[in-house]
Amino acid sequence: MCVADLDGDGDNDVLGSSPHGYGISWCEQTPGGWKAHEIDNTFSQTHAIVVADVNGDGLPDCVTGKRFWAHNGHDPGSFQPSVLCWYEQTRHAGKPEWTRHIIDAQSGVGLQFEVVDVNGDNRLDIVTSNKNGVFYFEQIAAD
After folding, report:
1. Per-residue pLDDT tens digits for 108-134
2. How far apart are the C-alpha atoms of 63 and 54, rounded to whole Å?
3. Backbone phi, then psi, for 97, in 5-degree steps?
4. Would you say the pTM of this structure is higher than 0.70?
5. What is the 3 state secondary structure string of 93-124?
6. What is the 8-class DSSP label of residue 4?
7. Mind listing the pLDDT tens digit for each residue in 14-70?
8. CA pair distance 80, 36, nearest whole angstrom
9. CB of 13 closer than 8 Å to CB of 6
10. How far apart are CA 100 and CA 63, in angstroms?
11. In this structure, what DSSP letter does residue 57 have?
């Protein structure tokens, strides 16, 4: 889970994932309580999630993926590809909307990973490790 102001209204919201099932959601803090919003439910075993401004547009995005062979085939979706994705946030009428971008379909994430500028080029990169290996994804400039 991550805590951040995802909708830009000045209070903290919660971003969460489902390590033993399907789903990535954010929970909006409202005056009347918490309101859940599904982001994606197409893959399972998202054991780690990071909030980061991946594209540098000032809006918080999120990065997550499926943990490879998380529980040795005993969870829903165990045999699906181990994707690594970032979800680009845009706003429509002041509310977050999320667009999935698949970074890789064979690596996935482990129990934790880092989204940092590894090589000092002012773009966020991703470093992850899991039962599939250790991976470094360098963000390169778009042409």
Report:
1. 999 999 999 999 999 999 999 999 999
2. 8
3. -130, 145
4. yes
5. CCEEEEEEEEEECCCCECCCEEEECCCCCCCC
6. E
7. 999 999 899 999 999 999 999 999 999 999 999 999 999 999 999 999 999 999 888
8. 26
9. yes
10. 9
11. S
